[in-house]
């Protein structure tokens, strides 16, 4: 078995059982423990698994998501591709929601130059990106400003979202799990995302490959609420297959 295939199957094994020892993996794949330890070290660098004493567990999200400045340059080229593909799904004359995030920001970038589109957003970065786009009307939800991300959130945000109906909502997420769906580490940010989903006829999730398979504390929405998933080619067929099997249209760009 090639090393790349073995590592893929190690991830699959740990996703199924949530934890594994080096000895168990060595026996499962018929290799020396040193080979497994080397594989685990390489997989851990990708952020998928976390090594423990004598074994490995699935990586978990904590309550402390990195700031906008820390996140905006991570996987930048992939996020740009995702934003371009997502923007191509917007039709002239549509009303859409763009969620706050470093990936969703690139949707706004690729909408510049389009016409007759209304964008509702809780992200001041998105609004600034579109401020000089004459064919695009921008509506900010209002709400409490989160200075680390330029996101608006809270009671005012939720109230505005409840009054809206749009054709499409583009939702970002720090965690997308094949069983548990859209997830988030911060309870206070869940209602706004749920409001965006409830306001839209079509839900399009945009996320880089590192978020797929992640677990987090709170479920935002089940996978049954998602119509389309856009991620990078960095995501493997194994990563996206569970979503395709649930009827979700998947674009790897």
UniProtKB/TrEMBL annotation:
This protein's UniProt keywords: Transcription, Transcription regulation
Keyword Transcription regulation appears in the UniProt entry: yes
SUPFAM superfamilies the record matches: NagB/RpiA/CoA transferase-like (SSF100950), Winged helix' DNA-binding domain (SSF46785)
Entries under PROSITE patterns matching the protein: HTH_DEOR_2
Domain annotation HTH deoR-type: ranges: 3-58
Database matches in Pfam families: DeoRC, HTH_DeoR
InterPro entries on file: Carb_Metab_HTH_regulators (IPR050313), DeoR-like_C (IPR014036), DeoR_HTH (IPR001034), NagB/RpiA_transferase-like (IPR037171), WH-like_DNA-bd_sf (IPR036388), WH_DNA-bd_sf (IPR036390)
Keyword Transcription found: yes
Entry's Gene Ontology molecular function annotations: DNA-binding transcription factor activity
PANTHER family in the record: AGA OPERON TRANSCRIPTIONAL REPRESSOR-RELATED, HTH-TYPE TRANSCRIPTIONAL REGULATOR SRLR-RELATED
Descriptive protein name: DeoR family transcriptional regulator
Organism: Paenibacillus macerans (Bacillus macerans)
Lineage: Bacteria, Bacillati, Bacillota, Bacilli, Bacillales
